[in-house]
## 1
Amino acid sequence: MTGYYGEHSKVFVSVDCIVFGFDQGKLKLLIGRRQMDPGRGEWSLYGGFVRQDESLEECASRTLYNLTGLQDIYMKQVGAFGAIDRDPGERVITVAYCALINVNDYDDNLRREHGVEWVSLDILPKLYSDHNIMVRKAITLLRRRVSTEPLSFNLLPELFTLTQLQHVYEAILGEEIDKRNFRKRIKTIDFIERTEYIDKLSSKRGAALYRFNKNAYSLEPTFKL
């Protein structure tokens, strides 16, 4: 480090990860009890401080990997939060990142090791500092993008039914969708492929299983639902 900017005050920079999953028809958030002061024991998002040798995105990727053990996670920056009194310990500016994962991909042993839980958004408790504000902004971001980006597939298994896909959209949007119109639109999208597999667990009659074709989407990345 150089001796430049010595006349200016220093602040800490952190990232906070807003990790969403979809389970039992609901959008859920990964939170845990804060294990450090200030705020020890309060419900909190999972985060970490930015190291001198890493960028914001590198810090967010490292933090998410430490938490989930997963790589290539869907991740988008939500925004920066820098209220003077947001952290009673020190002057901390944080940058929030929203991530989407398939709940079943997350090793439950790792979840317990970190002491985090999946909590439905409709019963979300009061979180540490401004973390509830971060979550609300992340949901707003998802709702703006869900109809123009194929982000919902990050919450589903590789093979899914149209009912599961519809429920993801409804969970993100917070409202019901007309089933007939939804299926009609989905069947016109080339990169949502029907497979030869049938789901006989969640449907007595058996429901066709679909998948998201990333290669087809990369050739024509337009999406409107």
## 2
Amino acid sequence: MQTEKREEYRQALLSFVMGHTQDVLKQPRSFIRYPFIDPGSVYDGNVWDWDTFWSVYGFLNLADRYEDASVRERLILHAQGNIRNFFDHQLPDGYIPMMIEVADWPEPYLNMKHKEGVLMNMHKPFLCSQICLISDYTGDYTWAEEFLTGIETYFECYDRNYYFEHCGLYVWCDDIMIGMDNDPATFGRPKFSTANIYLNSFLCTEFQAAAKLFRQFGKNEQARYYEGKRGALIAAIQSECWDPRDQFFYSADVDIKTRQFDWFHQGLGVFWKTLPIKIRVWSGFIPMYAGIATEEQADAMVRHMFDGKTFGTDYGLTTLAKDEKMFDLSATNNPSNWLGPVWLVANYVAFRGLMNYGYRKEAELMYERTLTLLGRDLIKTGSLHEYYNPFDGEPVMNGGFINWNVLVLNMADELDGKAPMLAF
């Protein structure tokens, strides 16, 4: 891409995002009692877990550039409000919902079902990460001290309901609101059967954030505890999710046991802990973002990332390898489609992983492809969309989506030498 065109797209996107910041800063409503940030588009009025994290990640990167200084203060207020809203709806057993919606009922739907005894997925592992993200930016952790007890019960809830001790991995309860809605490694599979590489990789960063958070308050024993949990989880991921033959990180099936039937199974039983779910999903690259891949593994993953027969595209990264039988580009909500379309959060996670392991040239290419995708969309339609066709770069659906599309500007700044917004 010519330098002039690159700068034109960058400035256009910067102007658009900063000009639409107010669109995603929402005031309290219904049982959402604190200001919050939503993704825009069809998601107006909902507080989502990992969506709010990435929105804050992108907008705080821009916060010092607003001519109106009050915008920065509103961003901080709404970012902290995200956290306050989630803890406001934490249940006594530590459960925190993935999403808080505006509705006529008295509390979040997921909480109502949980109280009925229906175990569902809980807040994805971005809670401590968002607290550290906000606190590092402001230089102030004191506002978060009130949440420390809730954080401990949040992790206890994870351990009690979603942890499989025999393999050391965490599982999704089901395929509801897992972030990558129709990831074939989990979507449509039996409950409590998938130790998803997405969930486990981001839990490594969440344990790291928890350790950092507790250390800020002199709680070194708790910090060491979460560091230990991170180390144990990394070991389990390496043992159960890395496939040395395919050179790829897979999700794992944990529903593995000897199915006893009379005398037929009295010999050698099932001794392996998991089976790899050999579907190449973009989440296999998250270990590079989380810093838990080895140098040799990262080298192999980079080859996958830019392979035109699998993940590589002129617009970044397909979310499912192109040669998988489930590859599909249908326009769909609930579930959203992660079976191949380009999503900006996947591009950024891959970009950050490349930077983490010193692949700057490849990171520049990922940025240029991402910039082209969003720049063309903005110039052509005057807006940004939720996800895109990987072959022609055309938007698939949901114009007006802001959220993690902002991360293209983080890419630009990080290539210019700025540190990532959250670093350990």
## 3
Amino acid sequence: MKINDNYQNIQNNFAYVNANNAAAASKVASEKDGSTDSSVKVEATTPNTDRVELSSDAKVTNKMSDADRAALVESLKSDLNTQTTRFTNMMMQMFNKQGITGLQAGSDAFWRQIASGNYTVDAQTKAEAQQAISEDGYWGVKQTSQRIFDMAKAIAGDDTEMMKKMQNAIEKGFEQATAAWGKELPGICGETHTAINGMFDEYYKNAGVA
């Protein structure tokens, strides 16, 4: 299946954005918050109303038509764009309040500012980040690894050689995320990377590919 001539770039960029956001959320979640009362515990219980939920019929299967696969790719991209915008807007607002200006959301300078830890995290932002990287959180290992793998399968279809190209594109995406971060990515990204490779190993095993 060929969605367009830039399929590897699509997967590469998808992995890059996911890795950077997961790394940033992990960093924010681990930062000491700037609350005046350290005893206050803020829980992020507000529903994520802008989350794009995929129906059970949209799950990746070998029986999906080309049109269904193309639609799933667009759904995954749209969902990621929505969540990335939500996260980067939250961080930009926090930076601006602290006089940190001149950053472009999603730029290398933006990611490196987060990686530096040279800012104060308010309790609510920290709580939301902790929720986001939790076991069932959007930027957690389980959802992030499944999302990246699903994108690869949606693009490749039943073509195992294409899946190998998708896996290589994911590797490049993580490498580029590390370069943008300016140092080794947080542990959650390594765990996510390992989980993705495990999914590929299982895929190849089931497909009878050595």
